[in-house]
Amino acid sequence: MILFSEFKAKYRTTALTFISFYEVNYTYDRELLVDYFGCVFDLLRSLIKRHISPKSLDRLDVVQEVMKDGSLLDALFDTNDSEKGLSRHLSVICCKLKNLIDDEKI
């Protein structure tokens, strides 16, 4: 149960940080988010490794590698590419995260 509480707290912190970077211009810190996501994935892996197949763990590892790279985060927070790039989805992502936090689901 302690591991789950730690995961939930780190996930919430990561979500709040993500939202903060969206709301406050020029505060995006790639290394910080990559570090936070890495911790979240490590905790998640520890929580679920006994409950899912090795193939599913491999899929989680693929997602973790994408997040560790940081280029997806860079594309999301790219203020110069708001029309056609991934950054146009950032407001939707942050709105959904805020709703989850407000509903105390994170």
Primary descriptors:
106 residues, mainly alpha, 5 helices, 72% helix, globular
What does this structure look like?
The chain is an all-alpha fold. It is 72% helix and 0% strand. The chain is built from 5 helices and no strands. The longest helix is centred in the N-terminal third of the chain and has 22 residues. The two termini are 16 Å apart.
Mean pLDDT: 92
SS content category: mainly alpha
Q: Assess the beta-strand content as a share of residues.
A: under 5%
Structure annotation, total helices: 5
Main sheet makeup:
none
Task: Count all strands and give the number.
Answer: 0
What is the CA-based Rg, rounded?
A: 15 Å
The helix fraction, in percent, is over 70%
Terminal CA distance = 16 Å
Give the SSE order as H and E letters: HHHHH
Uncertain regions: pLDDT < 50 for 5+ in a row? none
What would you call the shape? globular
Describe the protein's topology.
Elements: H1 2-23, H2 30-48, H3 54-69, H4 71-76, H5 90-102
Helix pairs in contact: 1-2, 1-5, 2-3
Short description:
The chain has 106 residues and is mainly α.
